[in-house]
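HUMAN: Spend a minute on the protein record below and explain its fold to me.
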Amino acid sequence: MYDLDTRNHLEKCSNMQSTNATEYRTHTCNELNVKHVGTDVLLCGFVHRIRDHGGLLFIDLRDHYGTTQCLLQETDDSFAVAEKLKDEAVVKISGTVVRRDPSTVNMAMSTGEIEVHVNNIEVLSQPALTLPVQINVENEFPEDTRLTYRYLDLRRKKMHDNIILRSNVISHIRQTMASMNFLEVQTPILTSSSPEGARDYLIPSRVHHGKFYALPQAPQQFKQLLMVAGFDRYFQIAPCFRDEDARADRSPGEFYQLDLEMSFVSQDDVLNVVENVMHSTFSKFAIPGYTVSSPPFKRITYSDARLHYGSDKPDLRNPLLIQDVTDVFRISGFSAFSEGVKSGALVRSINVPNGSSEPRSFFDRINEWAKDIGLPGLGYISMISESKFKGPIAKFLSGSELAEISRINNMKTGDAVFFVCDKKAVNLAGMVRTKLAETLNLVEQNAYRFCWVVDFPMFGYDEENKQIAFSHNPFSMPQGGLEALNTKDPFEIKAWQYDIVCNGIELSSGAIRNHVPEIMYRAFEIAGHSRDFVDSKFSGMIRAFKCGAPPHGGCAPGIDRMVMLLADTENIREVIVFPFNQQAQDLMMGAPADVTEQQLKELHIAVLPS
């Protein structure tokens, strides 16, 4: 069944079509009902399915809007033509609308009470091949086949609905942004290369020998320059290009985002706008029965997210929380952990309410899984009463240590606490938290749970280059401004940076921008870059800021990921009309492809052997 917004889209489009009849059709294939009985009609579409009932043929005719059942009897003039039709043939059908026999009425279809008695069939296009992707079956097909024949794959109902959903979501976002006085502006696609974290797609210039354009990883600098230009509130549905590897939630090559920027704002102002857009969009297009977080969304500091969720992308549907119990084990009698702590390991704990009631086989399975991800196993204890504990490591711990573990984890009788001890305990504990919740069916179902991650560190340490580096976005304003940069340990400085996360998926990063030239120079200096570097790499921006710039900030939620969540699919390629495969190839169009020697010569390019 189509969702309500999809049906509204189809009905609106089909009504427009019926008032503008052409030589091809008077109505669309979801439009006819009992009001049209006795009406002569002209329909066009694809042959979805043919059913032969012995002297009686039924054709399910499908177009973008829906399906209509058409009927032919053996004595009809077009019966011989209909018998030769293949699935997915494109036809024009003229006929008369009649009521269905009551026993064949299908109320699941908008046209389920009628059928069209066919007078004539004109074949507009007949498939010459056996189609590699069948449209009228629910079978799964290899992804490479689906992407090679994407135009067939998109005829399938689920895929067709996903693209309609995407269009409706973008249309709603545009209306919402306009209602908040945002101005839609298109920024350039050909620009200069900029060090923004991912690899650029480079385009050689024909006229400027040896020089290159880059496709924008994001409209970052342009949207900030729009604020300097005085436009106050900007947005666009922006295409972005990054030469990075594919993941289930990331498409290689290109993606789209709701790019927005605002002048004279604090972090709260930006977060409030984005919350309004997210809540409005997800409430409107949520899967039936799903609930959506209400603003204000929960805000979690970066350090708390890493500690309590084991990730900077917290999934709030999972109720389990991680705690730090490293100090408890530092001098404990459980040498496996105390020795680990001495060598730099951390110890994290996860309390599972009523976990002690689970059978021994549950604990064994979790331990075997832990070994599969590189841990020696998981220690655990169960609380039998306020002062009595059991479990493999309980006997190695003193009463005061058990009491402290109980306090930190807010344990109650019947709870079980699992422990992770490792130098990578932060991420591993996050994996254990997820595994425990999924195994015990603790993850909240049918919900979109939003949160913000805030207070990201301004700087981190680049192990590869052995130097201080920006940890997030180099254009962010440090909390405390120039004074913080001049007086604080760089690793203690927080930035006005924020991520919005839904169900453990990062939808966007954003920041209040560094709009003061001296603060920018100093921030880049700490990261090992000279004033000349800033003037060279970001000449347009730094020159603009020297002309006076308003405080400004923004965000850029990913359209593809939003639609992926709303379509209830784990693969982002299911909501992109013509995506690359995981190797960044367009199998349908054959890209990337070789070019001619003449083309290379015009660009002053030579291809070296690999």
Q: What stands out?
A: The chain is about 30% helix and 25% strand.
